[in-house]
């Protein structure tokens, strides 16, 4: 997709690195971190990084389920035209395919485009959207990937989807002025992919 000069900056959504702090208004980042509670188990053969997130799905007699989402890759820049939320439960995504992926969120409540944020998640990171957090459906890069998904089973309406009017749509992209961290991550992953 060619970015025309007419594309003004407010319609761009620049990718930022996924960190627990930046993602806190939207959910939890699932990753090994010395800042989280951890302790040895299994006779010292395993380190347990404990309770990185809660599975919040039991409202209205819901129950937790585990699924796999086999997802086709997208390319950047990518237009954000729709968003969704799950009012009855949280939803977590763990990358099984070893590729970076994209996470686009907005704060819960009435959809406010000014709270839209785009994150570049690394293959070792998972995310857990809190109940009601607006998010784009899962977006992977470079090749088809599987996500392990923990979310809510049971009856009741648990998926509000909205199509964004043109003025609220955003073009998700790398920040060209970035210190190259994100671009390098993506390029290196792509090159690695090519070498395989
Ligand atoms: N619809 C569905 O199960 N998937 C979405 O919720 C998603 O976030 O990918
Ligand atoms: Ni979802």
TrEMBL record:
Catalytic reaction(s) noted: (S)-ureidoglycolate = urea + glyoxylate
Keyword Lyase tagged: yes
Superkingdom of origin: Bacteria
Molecular-function GO terms, alphabetical: lyase activity
Protein's UniProt keywords contain Cytoplasm: no
SUPFAM superfamilies linked: RmlC-like cupins
Name under which the protein is recorded: Ureidoglycolate lyase
Taxonomic path: Bacteria, Pseudomonadati, Pseudomonadota, Gammaproteobacteria, Cellvibrionales
């Amino acid at each position: 997709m060619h970015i025309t000069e007419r594309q003004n900056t407010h319609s761009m959504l620049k990718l930022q690195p996924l960190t627990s702090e930046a993602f806190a208004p939207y959910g939890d980042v699932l990753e090994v971190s010395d800042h989280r509670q951890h302790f040895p188990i299994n006779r010292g053969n395993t380190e347990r990084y404990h309770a990185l997130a809660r599975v919040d799905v039991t409202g209205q007699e819901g129950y937790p389920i585990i699924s796999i989402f086999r997802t086709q890759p997208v390319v950047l820049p990518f237009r954000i035209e729709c968003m969704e939320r799950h009012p009855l439960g949280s939803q977590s995504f763990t990358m099984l395919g070893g590729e970076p992926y994209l996470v686009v969120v907005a704060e819960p409540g009435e959809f406010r485009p000014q709270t839209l944020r785009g994150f570049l998640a690394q293959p070792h990171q998972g995310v857990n959207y809190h109940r009601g957090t607006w998010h784009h459906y899962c977006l992977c890069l470079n090749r088809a990937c599987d996500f392990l998904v923990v979310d809510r089973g049971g009856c009741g309406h648990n998926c509000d989807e909205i199509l964004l009017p043109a003025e609220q749509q955003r073009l998700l992209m790398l920040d060209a002025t970035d210190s190259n961290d994100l671009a390098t991550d993506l390029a290196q992953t792509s090159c690695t992919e090519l070498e395989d």
